[in-house]
Amino acid sequence: MYPAPFRYHRPMTLQDALLLLVRYAPNSAILAGGQSLIPLMNLRKVRPGTLIDIGRIPGLSRMSFSDGVFSVGAMVRHQSLCEGEVERLGLPICFLRVLKQIGSQIGNLAIRHRGTFGGSLALANPASQWTLLSVLLDANVVIASTRGTRRQRYADVLGPPAQTWLGPDEVVLGADMRLSNLNEVFGFAQVAPSAGRPAMAFSLVATQRDDDRILNCRIAIGACTPRPLRLYSLENELANSRRAWREDIALADIIRSEVGHLQMIEGTDCRYAREIAVAAITRALKQAMMQ
Amino acid sequence: MTTEQMSGHISFKLNGREQIVSVDTRTSLADELREQCGMASVRVGCAQGECGTCTILLDGMPIRACLLLAVQADGAHVQTAEALSSPDMLARIKRAFKKHKALQCGYCTPGFLVLVDYILRRALPLDEARHVLSSNLCRCTGYEPIVSAVADLLSSRGDELGELQ
Amino acid sequence: MSFVGKPVERVEDEDLLSARTRFVGALSFDNMLHMHVVRSPHPHACLNAIGVDRAKSVSGVVAIFTGSDTRELAPIGFRRVVEPELSLYQQPVLALDRLRYVGEPVAIIIATDPRIAEDAAELVTLDVECLPPVSNAVAPGPDDGLGLHVQEAAGIDKSYGDIAAAFEAAAHRFSISCEIARQTAVPMETRGALAVPHGDASGFDFYGAAKVVHANRAELARILCLDPNRVVLREGHVGGGFGVRGELYPEDVLVAFAALRLQRAVRWIEDRREHFLATNHSRGQVVMLDAAVDHNGVILGLTADIVADQGAYLRTHEIKVADLSCAFLPGPYRIPAYRAQASVRLTNKTPCGTYRAPGRFEATFAMERMMDTISRVLKIDPIQVRRRNLIPASEMPFDRDLTAAGKKVRYDSGDYGLTLDKAVRAFDFEGMRKSAADRRAAGEHVGVGLAMFVEKSGVALRETASLCLSSDGSVELVTGASSLGQGLETVLSQIAADSVGLDMSDFKVVRGQTDRISQSGGTFGSRATIMAGSAVHAAGQLFRQAIIKRAAELFDAAPEAVHLQDGRLEIAGQPVDLSRLHMGNGDNAPALKIETTFDAENVSYPYGVHIAQVSVDPDTLQVRAERYCIAYDIGRAVNPDLVKGQLVGGAVQGIGGALFEEITYSNDGYPHTTGLSTYAIPKMADIPAFDVLVLEDWPSPTNPLGLKGAGEGGINAAGAAVAAAVEDAFSSQLTPYRLPMTAPYLFKLKTANERRRRQLDNLSD
């Protein structure tokens, strides 16, 4: 279980990294955290001829929160979004709490010390929690290449399962997400075969509420779908009905009906996948409304 | 660093001692530590980051040595279960594992010792400690005696602190 | 001071914790080469040709061998003597003209570096004609349309009593069909082998050995046409076995073959993906039971029909697993009439072998599901229905009138009813049930289930051990048995210390080296403590006499004046260091050594009760094990903590088998489960709280210390107990008959249930 041979580069500047990526295209790959790439290389499922380690390039691990925008650099490790500096950015408490909740369910501690936010976005594994967050909050991803830097809505970057529309010469530098309303409450729920295993379904909810009524809400589902999705018609249904929050059969029926229209990820038992999608959404909503 | 020839020189600290080695780019840190540096505690269980047998400390943090290329360890401080973060920590944790019979075949044990070192340094509460320990797989013990050993260590640490006051 | 019976700390731990270890992955020899196995990517194909030229030209590749090089080697045989026709299904060490499972060894590449060997492997070309694979052991339905038939390698038929009469007389008849998915052991260390040839190619040293070193030595010597005395198997540290490691595999033969041919040390370390393709699978049975029952729930007769998916070849344990299922299905119950038939079928999958409580994990699941079915339908309490069927203590020793792997089954000792009572009381089973019922009333899905079982231990009834005084006064204890992590050295030291009169620390244990002792049955079937322990005990008693005699002679004292107790030797009141006895009266004095062979009367049969408490998430149908209780009569516990360690470790493996673990293949024969992400073994977050009661009410009469084995008592009834608990969690509205009870499976059951209910409602309208 050894990878195929490769050249290894550890450039000290972003420009060098981008030039190397082009020079050795199409068989070059970025090494960020390595927690997804190296397992694939060990199985020889991928065989980059050149690895470009961006781990020592300064400036890729920045995090900031200003003017309501939360920016996360590509090399920010998962664990750094669970504890430490992230707690001192002035993020709204409810959002910080859900960030930790989501982050702590990624892999395990050892994986979280190395795996990166940018790596998650670039690989777009359906069970990746940060892609769910980026879709819910309409994040813009910052992409660099030798042709310059551009920004694109992350939801538009997502392609077929575990693929993106990023070019082979492009590197994710980070993402920005706007926390639109500081009174927003968040809820997250994940269904996995047991603790510490990849999610089979997860849901992230951000909602404004008036007492026990949902005002505006954003709801995203993922892991059971080929890519994370916003559930716009469910959001409208719940907001328009101005219903009082109650976890009852009527709510379950509404959610089930919405989920019934979704394309589930291939290879799963569709009926079961829809059930757990309903469970994840319900629990995420409940957590948000009980804040 | 650029390794056109598929290999390169790195220097890193291993259990406090400086190492300068020439490594193949393909060599994982796990294999380098075991085969070149003589660290018999660093073993590979899956080469996929799923079992945690290869867990070591990199700059004080538990990581999967099978998912780090040896070349990436350049300039880092690596600590393995032969030493952990200090001789005192190693002695205490070994004593607890023996007392609670927290090992059977011993193959996965070094990875757990590293996690326990981290847990004690951070003085995590037991439920968080269990969450951290769930990172690693064991097939012999059923985990229960490992939990007992860690609970014992966490509570006796509290006793020690109490005595200091 | 007595060591036997005390939960002393393990002598193995200091070395293991200090990484003073010798796992095969860390062993290296000068000039050593590395082997990589090229494996079949196809489940079923005709192999026409193998192209190795490009691979051979890779720098660093020293040799490549294919089936044409190993054609003359006899295939690996069976460990016991069976019908000659079964040898038709043995596996050639490298494929000849057919590929029969994904992972089958096709060629080996020997290179200076394992990475280079793997690079070269990708350049090997296979000229094949793919054939449709057989992936379903149960016969395809009449509309299958593929023209395939499943090949039966062997049929097994065991019976006693008058079945026809039993069914005639029955007030009730119950039929259930149970399925246990294909599962495997997953030790944390993958396999490995390292052969170091002797100078003249007449033999070799073999590292990475485990489990049954003497049997494997004999077999390797036979296959490679060598004098067995020139083949030395050396066990170092071993990272778990559970039945699958240590049987002889093609890779073991191939490593030795390559080393002998190339006259250089050759090492092979299995990677985890290979492990899932190439190391024995197990379980994989469909068990159909038919019970004839009277009004009181007493079983008058039972028939069992088993289909076992054996995979592509018969390995060292041939059809034994299915045989054991047949023999042990009746378990602790009387069952006056019984017939079991098993069909061992070949499919294009990884071959199967023994995995902890082989055949018995499956059998207990089926039998206990039947007991629970009877209990539910006849509305008899599950404890009552078992009590009414248990073999009473007055009938011990109990002749089952069946053979298991060729040997008559005779339960040696036990009082099953007593152990059931003790378990029910000690764990407050009724309290647990009441508490679960209360929680169900409050809306939770919580259930409690109980299962009983009989295990077997101490097979292969001969074992040799030796004790020898060293010059420093320590005693070298030599056993051919293996340690797979269970603490063998500790228990043998405890037994030796007591029988000789020394301290545990006086002993240095040598294990698993074929050149240090002439015979051993090895470690399997929970035999090591019983057999090696009994041999050590016998040797110890003789050794003690020899010490006393030598001391008396040397110091010109009467034997009565020699006292040997608690590790202290005193002659006529004077303390004497043992090392003084080492050379006797001069350089030519014989070593103070005893080697003795112990023969057990029979196999012994430990038994017990498992109780599981689970809660099920009503929306996701995920099961969480909350509590697990085990009561187990081991006859006599040498080290109660080590017994508990075996029971808890086995139970967690069993919980994995009950809830998560399943090896699956696509319909066209490609394996899905090739790693730890797809084959889900339990993590720490999955374990329940444990209560273990180790009982010593019924020592075994088959050996002087009264010992029975612990190795498989934790896993045996786990599937059954957890299934009963899951059923209880749904107040018997859901009745699982399949393992593992994954959430999607329970969801299917629940949906089918709801559909049936709706149909019934419609009918009644």
Automatic annotation (TrEMBL), chain A:
Keywords: FAD, Flavoprotein, Oxidoreductase. SMART domains: CO_deh_flav_C (SM01092). It comes from the Bacteria. The keyword Oxidoreductase applies. InterPro entries: CO_DH_flav_C (IPR005107), CO_DH_flav_C_dom_sf (IPR036683), Diverse_Substr_Oxidored (IPR051312), FAD-bd_PCMH (IPR016166), FAD-bd_PCMH-like_sf (IPR036318), FAD-bd_PCMH_sub1 (IPR016167), FAD-bd_PCMH_sub2 (IPR016169), Mopterin_DH_FAD-bd (IPR002346). GO terms for molecular function: FAD binding; oxidoreductase activity. Residues 1-182 form the FAD-binding PCMH-type domain. PANTHER family: XANTHINE DEHYDROGENASE SUBUNIT C-RELATED. This is Carbon-monoxide dehydrogenase medium subunit. It comes from Rhizobium lusitanum. The lineage of its organism: Bacteria, Pseudomonadati, Pseudomonadota, Alphaproteobacteria, Hyphomicrobiales.
TrEMBL record, chain B:
SUPFAM superfamilies: 2Fe-2S ferredoxin-like (SSF54292), CO dehydrogenase ISP C-domain like (SSF47741). PROSITE patterns: 2FE2S_FER_1, 2FE2S_FER_2. GO terms for molecular function: 2 iron, 2 sulfur cluster binding; metal ion binding; oxidoreductase activity. The keyword Metal-binding applies. Transmembrane segments: none annotated. This is Carbon-monoxide dehydrogenase small subunit. Residues 8-84 form the 2Fe-2S ferredoxin-type domain. Keywords: 2Fe-2S, Iron, Iron-sulfur, Metal-binding, Oxidoreductase. InterPro entries: 2Fe-2S-bd, 2Fe-2S-bd_dom_sf, 2Fe-2S_ferredoxin-like_sf, 2Fe-2S_ferredoxin-type, 2Fe2S_fd_BS, Beta-grasp_dom_sf, Diverse_Oxidoreductases. It comes from the Bacteria. It comes from Rhizobium lusitanum. The keyword Iron-sulfur applies. PANTHER family: OXIDOREDUCTASE WITH IRON-SULFUR SUBUNIT (PTHR44379), XANTHINE DEHYDROGENASE IRON-SULFUR-BINDING SUBUNIT XDHC-RELATED (PTHR44379:SF8).
TrEMBL record, chain C:
Keywords: Molybdenum, Oxidoreductase. It holds the Pfam family MoCoBD_1. It comes from the Bacteria. Residues 18-132 form the Aldehyde oxidase/xanthine dehydrogenase a/b hammerhead domain. One of its GO terms (molecular function) is iron ion binding. This is Carbon-monoxide dehydrogenase large subunit. PANTHER family: ALDEHYDE OXIDASE 1-RELATED, XANTHINE DEHYDROGENASE. The keyword rRNA-binding does not apply. The keyword Transport does not apply.
